[in-house]
Amino acid sequence: MHPADHAVRCPAKAAIVMADSGLTVSYRELDEHSNASAWQLRALGLRRGDVIATLFSNAPEVFVLGWAAQRAGLYQTAISNKLSARDVAYILRDSGAKLLVVSPSCRDLAMAALAGHPGLTAFVWSGGTRGWATGRWRRQAIRWRRSRTRARARTCSIPPAPPIAPGG
Questions:
Q1: Is the pTM of this model over 0.85?
Q2: Cβ distance 154 to 165 under 8 Å?
Q3: Domain 3-157 has CATH 3.40.50.980
Q4: What does the pLDDT look like over 54-66, one tens digit per residue?
Q5: Rounded to an integer, what distance in angstroms lies between the CA atom of residue 118 and that of residue 12?
Q6: How far is CA 90 from CA 5, 24, 53, 106, 150, in A?
Q7: Cα–Cα distance for residue pair 58/80, rounded to 1 Å
């Protein structure tokens, strides 16, 4: 059953409980933030059938982006943060990902993996419960330039949006 269905039936019920921190995310919050994130993915020009890659630590955004991708009709390739930069680069290349979204703790690994992907855009999720709850992504346009990496950061708000039906 889709989280949107649970958000209607039992909006305050816990959808995600993080054992280590005790953070609880309700079905209503999961539904609202995955919908807003789906709109953000669409605003980036992604279309049904495109692939996004995610490189996250163990955090609620794993579920938010997973459901956002599903809502927008995208395929998601989840990449383990335990892999080497070479392995991450291979998965990015092999999956045909058009976007990479990473946790702040995975930024260095992502930058190293992106060395061979100069055109791939990457975003660093703003991280933590505050960044997640406000629906903000901190954009990191990460491009490889010879022997160094250059990153530009910009924060973009995700405005309230009408629901995207599951499956986009």
A1: no
A2: no
A3: yes
A4: 999 888 888 888 9
A5: 43
A6: 37, 35, 12, 16, 21
A7: 10
pLDDT digits 0-9 by tens, 82-136: 999 999 999 999 999 999 988 888 889 998 999 878 788 888 876 444 444 333 4
Supply 31's token pair.
């539904």
Across the chain, which distance is largest between two alpha carbons, in Å?
53
β-sheet bridge partners, residue 9:
none
DSSP helix/strand/coil, 2: coil
Cα distance between residue 119 and residue 98, in whole Å: 9
Distance CA 75, CA 83 (A): 21
Alpha carbon distance 20, 32 (integer Å): 24
Which residue ranges make up each domain of the chain? 3-157
Contact predicate 88/54, CB 8 Å: no
pLDDT greater than 80 at residue 50: yes
**Burial per residue of 116-140, b for 16 or more beta-carbon CB atoms within 10 angstroms, e otherwise:** ebeebbbbbbbbeeebbeebbbebb
